[in-house]
Specification:
The complex is a heterodimer of chains A (153) and B (689). Chain A is an all-alpha fold. Chain A is built from six helices and no strands. The two termini of chain A are 32 Å apart. With 689 residues, chain B is of the alpha+beta class. Among the domains of chain B are: 150 residues; 108 residues, no CATH class; 107 residues, no CATH class. In chain B, 62% of the residues lie in helices and 12% in strands. In chain B, strands 4, 5, 6, 7, 8 and 9 form a six-stranded antiparallel β-sheet that branches. The radius of gyration of chain B is 28 Å and the shape is globular. Chains A and B meet through helix 1, helix 5 and helix 6 of A and helix 10, helix 13, helix 14, helix 15 and helix 16 of B.
């Protein structure tokens, strides 16, 4: 009961926190990396208190947000100043679009291969007899038996 | 002692080369004595590398700074356990440690399997020792940990010197987790060499039945267990040591460990199809080869300097050698596989798309897609930089966590769904009735959870961002999978309890021990569910940065109020630590004292933050002491509130326990008990159908 209560509380908390307003500064900080060479990742993640790059970049980002710039305008401004390498993810244009498309293209290709393999296998399987009333009655029972008494699966 | 280490390495090189040659010649001329000498040489290689790593450990313990590696990775005041852990703290030592683990595995495999699989073992020995030869050559000629420190003078002579003290171990590595995380990870990486060796031996001998699969399944599970444990420990280390409030940043080194783990997971599922149905024989060889190759690729990625990483070792010449080894091993494996295709025909055909076999195929597809997405993202900066300008390349593009999360999270949630579906499908063909019977209740619970989250607490997954939506979806799927697992345990234990008179808890225990692989697997799946529960909280992480506070000052986040009670400085020979004592109040009641630290390590002159954590099932409070403000009057803190993180670690433990259970041999029931259980289970089936 204690476990269930805790789990419920945890889920409740998650749900409640989700109601908060989006933090635009945090979201945008995730779109750019810190260029100090710490390899820690995004602007959000650089933990160096007096970092010569993260601190002024965060200030610059805050200023652009306060000036009412759109997300796109802020990205463009950062790319102009620091190059495309400042973006934490490849831009969705030109060759860089392939970064986003390739994983899903590979998944789709894999799916086609799996479907082909399954169909091919099925095509080679000799037609089984139409199940009679006995088979239908006991089919599910046999499945359960097989599942339960299979020594290792 | 450096000379002893050097001699041991040289001897290991000769002995491992002899082991390869003797095994191959012995097979060729069918001479058992020569084959046996190859086996003995494999064990001798283990002894030689053990002597080398012992020598390196000794040099660390006595702080012999005449050796460049010791001077670069230790200092006199380093505690003894960190001195020993420094063996794998840098490029040279960690490669030697890797090579040593390979010889440990090799010696164990040879000792355990020589009589059981006498025809395969000479090939297995040759392949394992071939890998060992490569590593020993690297230790000896490319990244030798026993090189003496000094400078080469203009006339070509070397001026050797001994430093009074070493540069110290990287402060980020001075953590108890670093004492166990790398060994676990390496045991995982290296472990995949064993199934690869058996697979290649099976191809070479054309003994492509189930023997190699049965001999290596447990070895694969051992490697998978260690790699998974290493990944979890690494995540925990990153969480409490790096101070950015997260545990997984999709860093290339993290990705390098995840890729072989994903492929190993795929193999552990598809191997069941070969055991049960004699299908997917080619695919299993491909998976075993890929798991081995990816574990070497990971090493190449992080040690060649080709990608930037928070963990990466300095750029070194090892990259080219590793690449050559990878190409050679992959080409040989592919050639053998193609050559032996006629021997790898399936014993059975697929009867239905809705069956356990096909669910494993889809599971493999998703795992490999995930692996490819990780590989592609990790390599994309290199690809984009080397692509011609007219194709839009020529500039190094950064690929960080936001990319990996966007691509991999939906794939992972689908994988979670398959985790629930797969075990409930029957082999060969699942009937509509059994689908209804098995899936109706879990689906109702899953959808119920989704509805509950939408309606009662008011979680709206659509207005803010994908994180909230994925968390909602993951919690729904996790409920679905958890219910399928509990039902499996419940149904099995109820039948057993009725048949044997055992109480329910005893029945669950005995049920699990009677079929460890099946029920251990369910426990692993439940661990996976808990991991998703922990991950789903990450979308709701909140933080406060740049909090300046002096003694007596307070700050608050959600229902918590923090009061700085003390700021102090502690000095010891290894580092100077600024410490804060912060009292935490929840709704006016004190619930914790947190003590974050900011350290300055003396030998390396590097700062680190020692995070203070208050962890509960509901959330973690994560307090970082970043240092003092400019006039030194106040401390600067960063505070995170991380919902559900504890479930990630609980999930990792459950996953590990499940794997260990699956590794146990099945407990044999007494014939009387067996009859009673079967009778009750038959009645259960009658009732449920």
């Amino acid at each position: 009961m204690k476990f269930l209560r805790r789990a419920l509380l945890a889920i409740l908390l998650v749900s409640t926190l989700g109601l908060g307003a989006p933090d635009r500064f945090k979201d945008l900080s995730d779109k750019f990396i810190c260029l100090c060479g710490c390899n820690m990742g995004t602007l959000n993640m650089c933990v160096m208190i007096h970092c010569g790059h993260a601190v002024p970049m965060r200030a610059e980002l805050k200023e652009l947000i306060d000036d009412g710039k759109s997300d796109e305008a802020i990205s463009a401004s950062f790319v102009d100043k620091y190059g495309k390498g400042v973006l934490s993810a490849p831009p969705m244009s030109g060759f860089n679009l392939s970064a986003w498309l390739m994983p899903f293209a590979a998944l789709a290709f894999g799916l086609l291969v799996v479907i082909y393999v399954v169909r091919n296998w099925k095509a080679h399987t000799p037609e089984t007899q139409t199940p009679g009333p006995f088979d239908v009655k006991y089919q599910s029972q046999v499945e359960e038996e097989l599942k339960k008494f299979t020594p290792e699966d | 002692m450096a000379q002893v280490g050097q001699f041991a390495l040289a001897l290991a090189f000769v002995v491992s080369a002899y082991s390869v040659i003797a095994s191959l010649i012995g097979i060729r001329i069918k001479n058992d004595k020569i084959i046996a000498s190859g086996k003995h040489a494999a064990i001798a290689t283990f002894l030689c590398i053990t002597m080398a790593i012992g020598a390196l450990g000794y040099l660390f313990v006595v702080s012999d700074f005449s050796v460049a590696y010791i001077a670069g990775h230790s200092n006199r005041d380093l505690p003894l356990y960190y001195k020993i852990a420094s063996i794998w703290g840098g490029q040279e030592g960690s490669l030697l440690f890797w090579g040593w683990l390979l010889t440990v595995y090799s010696a164990l495999v040879v000792a355990q399997n020589w009589k059981k699989h006498s025809s395969l073992m000479p090939y297995v020995t040759a392949i394992l020792m071939g890998t060992s030869l490569f590593f020993t050559a690297m230790h000896l000629f490319v990244v030798n940990p026993f090189h003496l420190g000094g400078v080469v003078l203009a006339d070509g002579t070397q001026n050797l010197w001994t430093r009074p003290d070493g540069a110290g171990l990287n402060p980020l590595l001075q953590d108890w987790m670093m004492v166990i995380h790398p060994p676990m990870l390496y045991l995982g990486f290296v472990g995949f060499a064993v199934p690869f060796a058996f697979a290649m031996a099976a191809l070479l001998t054309k003994q492509l039945g189930d023997t190699w699969i049965r001999s290596t399944r447990r070895w694969t599970m051992v490697a998978w267990f260690f790699l998974g444990t290493g990944i979890m420990l690494g995540g925990n280390w990153a969480y409490h040591e790096l101070g950015w409030g997260g545990f997984w940043a999709w860093d290339p080194v993290e990705n390098a460990s995840l890729m072989p783990w994903l492929i190993g997971t795929a193999f552990l599922h598809s191997v069941m199809v070969q055991e049960k149905k004699g299908m997917l024989k080619v695919w299993n060889i491909v998976l075993v080869t890929m798991a081995y190759i990816m574990s070497i690729v990971g090493t190449w990625l992080t040690r060649s300097g080709i990608v930037n990483s928070v963990h990466a070792f300095a750029q070194s010449p090892v990259g080219a050698y590793f690449l050559a080894f990878i190409i050679m091993a992959l080409s040989a494996a592919l050639y053998l596989l193609v050559d032996r295709l006629p021997y790898l025909k399936s014993d059975n055909e697929m009867e239905s798309v809705v069956s356990r076999e096909s669910s494993f195929l889809f599971n493999n597809l998703i795992l490999l897609a995930c692996c490819f997405a990780v590989f592609w993202g990790t390599m994309f900066p290199v690809i984009s930089e080397n692509m011609p300008k007219w194709l839009g390349g020529g500039e190094r593009i950064t690929v960080e966590a936001p990319f990996f999360n966007k691509v991999n999270v939906p794939i992972a949630i689908f994988l979670l769904f398959l985790t629930g579906v797969g075990p409930l499908l029957a082999w060969r063909k699942a009937s509509t009735n059994s689908l209804k019977r098995n899936f109706l209740i879990p689906a109702v619970f899953g959808l119920g959870m989704g509805g509950f989250l939408l309606v009662w607490p008011g979680l709206r997954p659509w207005p803010i961002g994908s994180g909230e939506f994925y968390s909602w979806l993951a919690l729904m799927m996790a409920t679905f999978v958890a219910v399928t697992i509990f039902r499996e345990f419940y149904k099995g234990a109820r039948a057993r309890a009725k048949g044997t008179g055992e109480n329910f808890v005893e029945a669950v225990m005995n049920l699990t021990l009677r079929n460890t692989r099946r029920y251990g697997g369910y426990i692993v799946h439940f661990g996976f569910v808990l991991l998703f529960l922990g991950w789903s909280g990450q979308a709701f992480k909140v933080d406060m940065a740049g909090i300046e506070a002096g003694i007596g000052d307070t700050f608050s986040l959600h229902q918590y109020v923090f009061r700085v009670d003390d700021l102090a400085v502690e000095d010891n020979p290894n580092y100077t630590a600024s410490q804060a004592k912060v009292a935490v109040f929840e709704n006016g009641r004190q619930v914790a004292i947190m003590k974050p630290e900011h350290r300055e390590y003396k030998a390396s002159n590097q700062p680190t933050s020692e995070v203070s954590l208050r962890s509960t099932a509901r959330e973690d409070l994560y307090l970082v002491f970043q240092g003092g403000n400019t006039d030194g009057s106040k401390a600067i803190f960063q505070l995170y509130l991380n919902p559900l993180v504890a479930w990630v670690w609980v999930g990792g433990i459950v996953l590990g326990l499940g794997t260990l259970i699956a590794l146990l041999p099945n407990k044999k029931p007494t014939p009387r008990k067996q009859r009673a259980i079967q009778s009750e289970e038959a009645k259960e089936v009658e009732v449920s159908s």
